[in-house]
Write a structure and sequence with these properties.
The protein has a domain of about 25 residues. About 75% of the residues lie in helices and about 0% in strands. It is rod-shaped and about 40 Å long.
């Protein structure tokens, strides 16, 4: 797994160098995005439960 800084995640398009190096592992990138979405949903649920 490649650790992506928050700044690049929020940006609509990452730097070209990052895209070039990741081209062979697009499936891994997609899986990382899905995992990130799941984590965000979990955090939202936790926050709702606390309230």
């Amino acid at each position: 797994m490649v650790h992506i800084p928050r700044s690049t995640v929020k940006g609509s398009s990452p730097p070209l160098k990052v895209v070039e190096s990741k081209r062979p592992s697009v499936s891994i990138d997609a899986a990382a995005k899905q995992a990130r979405l799941m984590l965000q949903r979990k955090m939202k649920r936790m926050n709702l439960m606390r309230r």
